Amino acid sequence: MNTETYSYDGIFRKLPAALDKSGNAFAGVERKVEQQRKNNDKMLLVKTKSKNVAINKDDIMYVESNRRKKEIHMTSGVIEIYSTMDALNCLLGEGFYQCHRGYIVNMAHVLEYTCDSIKISSGEVVYMSKEKYNGFETSYTLYLGGYN
Hints:
It is built from 3 helices and 12 strands; from the N terminus they run E-E-H-E-E-E-E-E-H-E-E-E-E-E-H. By secondary structure, it is of the alpha+beta class. It starts with a strand and ends with a helix. The mean pLDDT is 83.
């Protein structure tokens, strides 16, 4: 009985040739690696005053600047860190928009907006600068999937 190498979960095993699925072996490994990469892209490691915390970007509603501290307002509470808004904006990436020098919002948590404010899913309102309004409107429309 011939055997072939096959991997379903990244561990290679010997299976009978009749069950040869080696053509799909690498596809399965690639899917797992891609899924792990997507999960890692959703996580953000931040350092608070006393500990390091891994947070899911989906749980972030908005970030508020309070002098040197940045308050990350999440669905489960607030985390205070020391960082710059530019650094956080780069780390957060797609799906977030700096609508004011003191605020970065998660597009997934935007309920409504006007030319000077954004209402977040928690009911809180954050400021939007007049200079950022057109950019926000374009980014939010693209985030929602195009123009109506």
